[in-house]
Amino acid sequence: MIEFKCLENGFRYIEVTNTKANAKVALNGAHLFHYQRVGERELLWLSDISYFEDGKAIRGGIPICWPWFGFNKDDVSLSQHGFARTSLWEFKSSNETTDSTTLVFTLSDTKETLEVWNYKFSLELKIAISDTLTLELKTTNLDTKEFILTQALHTYFSILNISNVIVKGLDKKPYLDALSWQNMVQDGDIRFEREVDRVYQNIDNTITLVDIDREITIKNEGSSSVVVWNPWIEKTKRMSAMKEDAYTTMLCIESANAFDDARVLKPNESHTLKATIY
Ligand code: TA6
User: Fold this and answer.
1) Per-residue pLDDT tens digits for 131-163
2) Can you tell me the distance from the alpha carbon of 206 to that of 77, in angstroms, rounded to the nearest whole number?
3) In principle, which of 11, 85, 115, 168 could form an S-S bond with 208, CB 3.0–4.6 Å?
């Protein structure tokens, strides 16, 4: 079942219910902000003080960082993580069976996007909701000049406690430490006891988030970089729309094309970033 819903302030979202899962996607940012499998606790972390307003990023769920990840290298005054997450997307189509629902959203260049990023494009996000969650983000260059694309599906996972989780699958992988801007190599599994903000490279395998009560697997395609982020105590205090203890129950593992994994798209070329989570 697909229901079109609206908050009192006009903020629109789509709620999906099938025999395997329940999910909510906002038109602002084509942002999945709730996904729960039947009989399980919520998969995605969502701040209880998040904005739900058109033009503002939701804190939690899966923000779409596009067409740049992090700061814009050419103009650092532009919004971090690009404009897709704060743009109103168009709902294009849906496809339903009893145990699976697929929603398709699109975004195209406008006068406003051309002012900050001077390229014509089409962007399509396909979200398949079942006992597996799949997101496919397809970028097409509709311009006459090539562009560089960096992006991420900035997934916030809901965890029981940051001190008990382990991330597996990144042992021996090189990473850029975004706190010190040094190139490092991962030694063993990742455990958390301080702020972590890292862009791992050369990833061609699945990543597993091991929590006390469950394991979540993330498989990426069209991507060889993965960002792992937890703001810990001090940064959380400086973050917007996050309570002081928020860092204890969230962990971002982001399917990305970032830094060395940036993609160049020539006119009429497309690139698809796909994340499968189960
Ligand atoms: O992906 C990690 C990161 O780039 C961090 O450095 C952190 O600031 C985070 O994203 C959240 O960014 P935001 O713009 O949503 O506050």
Assistant:
1) 999 999 999 999 999 999 999 999 999 999 999
2) 35
3) 168
